[in-house]
Write a structure and sequence with these properties.
The protein is of the alpha+beta class. The protein has one domain: Gcn5-related N-acetyltransferase (GNAT) (Aminopeptidase, 3-Layer(aba) Sandwich). It is 28% helix and 37% strand. It is built from 4 helices and 8 strands. It has helices at residues 19-31, 41-47, 91-105, 121-128, and strands at 2-5, 8-14, 53-58, 61-71, 74-82, 110-116, 131-135, 139-145. Strand 7 and strand 8 (139-145) form a beta hairpin.
């Protein structure tokens, strides 16, 4: 799947087993200032579900990933990480559009996510239409109702 943003294009591909450590490292780099505890790679790998993760390639190099999946109570966007070089260029919005369309194709009616309270991505999610459900000093839970009538 190709996604265009600004004057660039990225490719999304399903993750392979060798991608789990890359995803862990990128998450650690991007989220270190928001996290209160440190997750080990062994803990991360236990929760890493290959079929739910898409790796973002730009010029044939990995520059991020998205992780979303269906649970019994709805769809969750577990993680969306971009290398610093691709942040604040509109790609996050394009990736959210992609996730929403994929969830709608599966007849999903709600998309949920959790984010650290101080993470600036909260602004992106709210702008995109997510509503804050709960908030505490460490995290924010957001939901977005989806119109699946069109599919």
């Amino acid at each position: 799947m190709k996604i265009k943003f600004s004057d660039r294009e990225v490719q999304l591909e399903k993750a392979s087993a060798s991608d789990s450590y890359y995803c862990y490292q990128l998450s650690q780099r991007n989220m270190f200032k928001y996290k209160t505890g440190k997750r080990t790679y062994a803990q991360y790998k236990k929760e890493f579900v290959l079929s739910d993760v898409r790796i973002i390639y730009y010029n044939n190099r990995r520059f991020g990933y998205i992780d979303f999946q269906e649970k019994t109570d709805g769809w969750y966007l577990w993680d969306m990480q971009l290398s610093k070089i691709l942040q604040n260029r509109g790609l996050g919005t394009k990736l959210l559009e992609y996730v929403v369309e994929e969830v709608k194709k599966q007849k999903g009616s709600v998309l949920k996510l959790f984010v650290y309270t101080k993470n600036p991505a909260v602004v992106l999610y709210k702008k995109f239409g997510f509503k804050i459900i709960t908030k505490n000093s460490n995290s924010v839970r957001l939901h977005m109702q989806l119109d699946v009538q069109a599919f």
